[in-house]
Each structure stands twice: as structure tokens, then as C-alpha cells.
Amino acid sequence: MDRIFEQTLLYDFYGELLTPHQQKIYEEAVFNDMSLGEIAEEYGISRQGVHDLIRRCGRTLQDYESKLHLAERFVSAKEKVTQIAELTKENSRSGAEGEDSDTVERMEQIRLLCQELLKEL
User: Fold this and answer.
1) For 45, which DSSP code?
2) How many Å apart are CA 43 and CA 37, to the nearest integer?
3) Fewer CB within a 10 Å sphere, N or C end of the chain?
4) Under a CB-based contact definition with an 8 Å cutoff, are residues 34 and 28 in contact?
């Protein structure tokens, strides 16, 4: 996973578990792309303090993910839903000339993907 996408995804799932101060600093660094110096000046702390806080937040978010796996499950579910959409799109393109073996097979694939999705959610 792309680092920025991963940071954003983890923050979306677990950001509320950080303190308000941690949230502000982390958002400034990750979402607003502010430098350590800019953040340090704005919040009246050292650059090293900002750096340490951002790393601690990142580790905390990773720890939550390693225990709960919410982001991983979300990405997996999204991929499966995408597969379902592709399978149904192919089905609609082929037309509705009765249920040939190809259509039956795709419908079975859709059914199996849906079952997997329901287990994960």
C-alpha cells in the first residue's frame, strides 16, 4: 500500500483514538503537508518534539491496525465489491439470451464473493 494512502486510511479508522493534540499535529504533517519546523513554530514545541509525536502517532495507529485489522478488512471488502461489479458488468454486456454456462458460472462467482464479503463484515 502507498505510504500516504496507508497513513490516511489508518487515521480514518483510528484517528479518533488519538488525543486532540496528537490529532492536530498529525493532521498538519500528513494532510496539510507542513514541515516539522512550521508545525513546531505554530505549536510552540521543538522540531524534535514534533518528529517524535508524529512517529509515536504512526506507531499507535499501526498498533491499532495490527490488533483490529479494520483497514485491512475494508480494503479487502472494497476489492471484492470491485470484482463483483466487474463480473456483473461483463454479464450485462453479454446480453440476456437465457442462462448459458458462462452466465451460470459468473453468477456462482458472484454468490461466492458475496458470501466471503458477508463473513468479513
Assistant:
1) -
2) 10
3) C
4) yes
Q: What is the dihedral of CA 103, 109, 112, 116, to 10 degrees?
A: -140
- What gap in Å lies between CA 70 and CA 73, rounded to an integer? 5
Q: Are 56 and 5 in contact (CB under 8 A)?
A: no
Tell me, what's the pLDDT at 106? 82
CA distance 121 to 108: 20
How crowded is residue 45: how many other Cβ atoms within 10 Å of its Cβ?
16
Q: Report whether 40 contacts 47 (CB < 8 A).
A: yes
Is the distance from CB of 23 to CB of 73 less than 8 angstroms?
A: no
Q: What is the full per-residue pLDDT of the chain (121 aa) written as tens digits?
A: 588 889 999 999 999 999 999 999 999 999 999 999 999 999 999 999 999 999 999 999 999 999 999 999 999 988 888 888 788 776 655 555 556 778 878 877 887 888 888 787 6
Distance, CA of 71 to CA of 94 (rounded, Å):
35
